Amino acid sequence: MQRVFPFFVEAALVTIEITVLALILGLAAAALAAAAKMSRSAILRTIGTLYVSLFRGTPCLIQLFVLYFGGPQIGINLEPFAAGVIGLGLNIGAYMAESIRGALVAVDRGQTEAARTIGFSRFQTLRKVVLPQAARLMIRPLGVNTVALLKGSALVSTISVVELTYTAQRFIGSTYKPFEIFGVAALLYMIMVYAVARVVDLLDKRFAIV
Amino acid sequence: MSTQRPMVEVRGARKSFGAVEVLRGIDLSVDRGQIVAIIGPSGSGKSTLLRSINHLESLNSGEVWLDGVQVNQPLHGQAFERHINKVRQQMGMVFQHFNLFPHLTVLENISMGPIILKGMTKSDAHALAHSLLSKVGLADKIDAYPSRLSGGQKQRVAIARALAMQPKVMLFDEATSALDPELVDEVNAVMKQLAAEHMTMLIVTHEMRFAGEVADRVLFMDGGVIVEEGPPGDMFRAPQKERTRTFLKKYLSA
């Protein structure tokens, strides 16, 4: 066990890396999708809705397979790591889009009305009044999404990204101790999830409206 | 009737929400410095009328004018957006639920409009906020967040925020309806002070006594039309229409 532990730590770092990169991609996709879904243009709304339904309505595993195994057929050749980041990022982006939209919608309508009656434009109202309040409402749901992303990153082991779950599986063959090996992997996931939860708590406090 | 052009004018205003027509042809003219109280049962269209003047509701037909400028001009897209943002800067609106910005201090709530929209310097805007807060009796709350204020204090800050834009007219949409009874007077006092300064005001209210004290004219609305209007003395003592009498009897006996 002591012999394999350094490999686990290294693999956990890969899990963190893939999660952080997918999170960045996911947030960007989510912001665009939420904006599209709330846009006044019917075409943009349709695109936003299609994206969200497609990625929330199918298994993440299938999305990864389509991207990694199916990609080459249409000329997209991705390394496992890149395919993993893109697949996970686009998947979580669809969920995060709803978290962002939900927070924006949850800001009381009266806030927008008050800002508009003062004479602020739509954009000024969004930037100065709605977003600062919605940001706070987004923190928890986006935190939940991030935890789901972190745990869901185990799926990329199936497209041979050498992260925590993949590494654990690899050591079963040489140690014949699945209980301990997967137990340690589970423990490492738990520690990472706990860290995310703490960060979310801190952000929540930091952005609390007095 | 004076010969100067009216400050607020509404012509043939009609508005439906789905199949329900809530404004069924409203004509209204308010002179500069005049104070008009709008009374009537819930659902009579009085709030919708007030919101239409600010274009929070867009009319199905009819016109709204503010000091010789048509509020609901037949423009589209960005052109209308620019127009309405300019017009709205000249109208202050006060809501039943205050709608202060909870993430900003009292000072920021008040000074944000003048700084961003009027290009006022920070120090000028802060001085303005300070003088307006003194006027509504809340100078000591300048750095407080709205959540630390009572309902009456919130509404007074909301009035100061609207005044900071130096509006030509103030629209009050049931400004005291959400307040505990003992907090109503402090808000009414501020409104009376504005009346004394000849601010043009349209006040949607359920408080007949206050309407009687402050208004030059009282409009009684029901079913999307102005049923009757007149000076408060006539309206409250000798209403002409049966519908007005029934309504007032209920309120004045309560």
Automatic annotation (TrEMBL), chain A:
> Residues in domain ABC transmembrane type-1?
8-200
Q: How does it sit in the membrane?
A: Multi-pass membrane protein
Tell me which InterPro entries the record gives.
AA_ABC_transptr_permease_3TM (IPR010065), ArtM/GltK/GlnP/TcyL/YhdX-like (IPR043429), MetI-like (IPR000515), MetI-like_sf (IPR035906)
Task: Return the GO cellular component terms, semicolon-separated.
Answer: ATP-binding cassette (ABC) transporter complex
Q: Which UniProt keywords apply?
A: Amino-acid transport, Cell membrane, Membrane, Transmembrane, Transmembrane helix, Transport
Supply the PROSITE patterns for this chain: ABC_TM1
Q: Where in the cell is it found?
A: Cell inner membrane; Cell membrane
Give the main location: membrane
Any one Gene Ontology molecular-function term assigned to this protein's record: transmembrane transporter activity
Which GO terms are recorded in the biological process aspect for this UniProt protein? Answer: amino acid transport
Which residues are listed as membrane-spanning? 12-36, 48-69, 81-97, 142-161, 181-200
The similarity comment for this entry is: Belongs to the binding-protein-dependent transport system permease family. HisMQ subfamily.
- Outline what the protein does: Part of the binding-protein-dependent transport system for glutamine; probably responsible for the translocation of the substrate across the membrane.
State the name under which the record lists this protein: Amino acid ABC transporter membrane protein 1 (PAAT family)
Lineage runs:
Bacteria, Pseudomonadati, Pseudomonadota, Alphaproteobacteria, Hyphomicrobiales
From TrEMBL, chain B:
Q: Where is the ABC transporter domain?
A: 8-248
Output the SMART domains linked to this UniProt entry: AAA (SM00382)
Q: What PROSITE patterns would the database entry show?
A: ABC_TRANSPORTER_1, ABC_TRANSPORTER_2
The principal location of this protein is: membrane
Q: Which GO terms describe its molecular function?
A: ABC-type amino acid transporter activity; ATP binding; ATP hydrolysis activity
Q: Offer a single GO CC term for the protein.
A: plasma membrane
Q: Give the membrane topology, semicolon-separated if more than one.
A: Peripheral membrane protein
Q: Which InterPro entries match?
A: AAA+_ATPase, ABC_ATPase_HisP-typ, ABC_transporter-like_ATP-bd, ABC_transporter-like_CS, MetN_ABC_transporter-like, P-loop_NTPase
Family matches, as Gene3D superfamilies: P-loop containing nucleotide triphosphate hydrolases
Record localization: Cell membrane
What is the native source organism of this protein?
Answer: Rhizobium loti
Say yes or no: keyword DNA damage present: no
The text of the family note is: Belongs to the ABC transporter superfamily.
Organism domain of life = Bacteria
- Its recorded name reads Amino acid ABC transporter ATP-binding protein (PAAT family)
Q: Which UniProt keywords apply?
A: Amino-acid transport, ATP-binding, Cell membrane, Membrane, Nucleotide-binding, Transport
